[in-house]
Amino acid sequence: MRPPSTRPRQAGFTLIEVMVVLVIMGVMATGITLGLDSLRGRELEQALQRLRLVLEATADRASVRGRPIAFELLPDGYRFSALDPDDNWRPLIDPPVFTDRPLPAGLSWSGLRLEGQAEAGATRLLFGTQPPEFQLRVLTPTGEALLRGRANGEVVLQLPGRQRS
Fold first, then answer.
1. Mean pLDDT within 22-39
2. Does the domain made of 19-158 have the CATH classification 3.55.40.10?
């Protein structure tokens, strides 16, 4: 029989244990990154859906009130103006729907085309008693989204890679 070893056992991790922990951490980091990207994508989609609904509400409001409302594209967002009784354009401040809004990071205007007109860098869309027919293009990280306004006031959103939403 051998006497027990007098050498103390060294504490620490083996190379395999360290590698397993690193692999697990890498898998978790990948999952978190993918989750955050999908949340950001949903945030941008919600911003486009909100814009679609606001454009429909603008058409309804202008038609019901019989006074024109302008939707103005700004470099980093959009705002609304209404024609007052003195025929002057004034900012439309009617929270929460018609307040100035910035575009979320990742979205930018690509172009506005009014039906029957060539695209010439229009930055104002006028809603009157009859809703305008238009195409508003918005650049997203995944491609170009299209907001198409119809003569009945409906606005259809086409997202990149999808037919219709």
1. 68
2. yes
The token pair that represents 37 in the structure block: 């990207």
pTM of the complete model: 0.70
- Cα separation, 66 vs 60, in Å, equals 10
Q: Pick the closest to residue 137 from 129, 126, 147 (CA basis).
A: 147
Rounded distance, CA 64 to CA 104, Å? Answer: 30
Tens digit of each residue's pLDDT (9 = 90 or more) over 50-63: 999 999 999 998 88
Can you give the residue ranges of every domain in the chain? 19-158
d(CA 80, CA 96) in angstroms, rounded, equals: 12
CB 154 within 8 A of CB 161: no
Q: Determine the Cα–Cα distance for residues 104 and 21; give it in Å rounded to an integer.
A: 37
